[in-house]
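job 3f2a | input accepted
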Amino acid sequence: MTEKTILSRKELYKKVWTTPMIHLAKEFGISDRGLAKICQRYDIPRPRLGYWAKLEHGKKVSKVPSPKILSRTINGLRTSTEKSTTSSTMKTLAKEEQ
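job 3f2a | predicted structure (98 res):
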C-alpha cells in the first residue's frame, strides 16, 4: 500500500530547514538528490554544505529566506513513502499565483 503526503511549498521549505535532506528524503521514500531536484524546480532554497555541522557545534548559521514566487507556485506536492518510489512519482497537484 502506498501512503500519500501532501505538502505546500511553504511546508516543504520549513522541513528542508529543520531536517537534513538525507533524513527528509528517507521520510518521503525518495533519494536526497531527488528531493534536491524538487527544491530546485520550485525555487526552494536549501542549507549549504556544512550548515548542519555548524548548527550542531553552536556556530552562527544563516537561513536563506524563501523567495516570493509570483508566476510559478505550487499548492502541494504528492509523494509516496513506499520504498521503491522514485522522484518521477512526485506530482504537482495544483499551480496558482500568489
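job 3f2a | Residues 81-98 have pLDDT under 50 and may be disordered.
job 3f2a | closed
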